[in-house]
């Protein structure tokens, strides 16, 4: 069987043959049927007094961030970062269906993850984003905190976001790294 293209007539493909010489109207919309507009009533639907009471109340804007920032122990950015890192994972379930080697792999993976937190996460746990940004800038200048830019995938200059890591956590992570030379540490 050859795979060559043939201009032969196929029974599966049908085209509506339109004669280019025969035109019945000058408008392309002439073939559509015309309909009269639908008559709409001009009276408004009746609203009960109970429905009006529901819509007159003003909603108090508490927002998601206000409910996350209720913990009083989180007073500065360093505490927020430590809190986010300590509450990042749920404890391993005792009867989760994992064998002991899989549990060890998961716990070692958690241990080797860098203790970075996104700036958005810090803003979600703080009360004021402006004060948090000022404190991040101050802690970065005093070398307590390091800001990490997370690049996007593919081409282009857009970034996914920014992360934060405490210098103490960064130094301990570099000290425990096996593949690094002493000069780089």
Description:
The structure is a single chain. This protein is an alpha+beta fold and 185 residues long. It is 36% helix and 9% strand. The chain is built from seven helices and three strands. Strands 1-3-2 form a three-stranded antiparallel sheet. A hairpin with a 7-residue loop joins strand 2 and strand 3 (159-166). The longest helix has 13 residues, at 100-112. The radius of gyration is 33 Å and the shape is extended.
For this entry, give a set of tags.
alpha+beta, 9% strand, single chain, 3 strands
What is the element layout, followed by pairings?
Blueprint: H1 49-56, H2 63-68, H3 77-86, H4 100-112, E1 117-118, H5 119-125, H6 129-141, E2 145-151, E3 159-166, H7 167-175
Task: Please summarize what this structure is.
The protein has 185 residues and is of the alpha+beta class. The protein has helices at residues 49-56, 63-68, 77-86, 100-112, 119-125, 129-141, 167-175, and strands spanning 117-118, 145-151, 159-166.
Taken as a percent bin, the fraction of beta residues is 5-15%
Principal-axis shape: extended
How many whole angstroms does the radius of gyration measure? Answer: 33 Å
Structural classification? alpha+beta
Number of strands: 3
Poorly predicted ranges (pLDDT <50, ≥5 residues)? none
Individual helix count = 7
């Amino acid at each position: 069987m050859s795979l060559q293209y043939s201009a032969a007539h196929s029974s599966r493909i049908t085209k509506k043959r339109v004669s280019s010489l025969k035109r019945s109207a000058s408008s392309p919309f002439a073939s559509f049927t015309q309909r009269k507009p639908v008559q709409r009533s001009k009276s408004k639907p009746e609203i009960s007094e109970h429905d009006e009471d529901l819509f007159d109340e003003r909603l108090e804007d508490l927002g998601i961030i206000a409910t996350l920032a209720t913990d009083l122990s989180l007073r500065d950015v360093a505490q927020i970062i430590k809190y986010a890192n300590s509450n990042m994972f749920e404890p391993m379930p005792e009867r989760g269906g994992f064998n002991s080697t899989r549990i060890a792999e998961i716990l070692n993976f958690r241990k080797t993850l860098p203790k970075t937190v996104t700036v958005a996460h810090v803003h979600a746990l703080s009360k004021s984003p402006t004060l948090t940004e000022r404190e991040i800038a101050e802690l970065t200048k005093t070398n307590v905190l390091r800001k990490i830019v997370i690049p996007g995938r593919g081409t282009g200059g857009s970034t996914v976001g920014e992360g934060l890591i405490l210098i103490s956590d960064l130094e301990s992570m570099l000290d425990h790294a096996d593949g690094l030379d002493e000069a780089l540490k």
